[in-house]
Design goal:
Blueprint lengths: L9 H6 L9 H11 L24 H14 L4 H14 L5 H16 L9 H17 L15
Length: about 150
């Protein structure tokens, strides 16, 4: 469910309370859907055409700063964010600077005290998902108890 196109069943859309008007709404809605017992996944056949790179309306680096800020709002922890910023910096143009911009967005949101997603149980749920995903990479084939599962990688 990444990118410009999101598809919801009516039951899921109602269960998550619709789309929130916040930065990172597209990450938050997926976590809340999984909290409600729905499966989230990418559908390769559902396509949308972007006229420009995602998040680049004000320039790519500003877009990566916004992504980092969204990472803060969506309650991702510092370790997860450092790993994600390294991936952004290694894969997206301009290389290196993109990762720094991403990390800057997260850190500046933290310092400024930007409000985070405040749905009950959200923080614990996402921490459990992160533990499961890290464990899956480190120990393939093992299961982390108490962690949610998702087909959305």
């Amino acid at each position: 469910m990444r990118g410009a196109l999101k598809l919801y069943s009516r039951a899921c859309f109602e269960a998550i309370g619709g789309v929130r008007e916040v930065l990172a709404w597209d990450a938050v809605d997926e976590v809340i859907a999984r909290m409600q017992g729905f499966e989230t996944r990418s559908i390769p056949t559902a396509e949308a055409f972007h006229q420009r790179h995602t998040g680049s309306a004000d320039g790519r680096l500003r877009g990566h700063v916004r992504w980092g800020r969204g990472h803060w709002i969506a309650q991702h922890g510092p370790f997860w964010t450092v790993v994600r910023s390294a991936k952004v910096g290694a894969t997206l143009e301009p290389r290196g600077a993109s990762g720094v911009a991403y990390l800057y967005g997260y850190a500046s949101a933290a310092v400024r005290g930007v409000p985070r997603c405040d749905v009950a149980g959200y923080r614990g749920f996402i921490k459990a998902e992160h533990r499961r995903r890290i464990a899956a990479r480190l120990y393939p084939g093992r299961t982390v108890r108490g962690a949610a599962t998702s087909s959305n990688g």
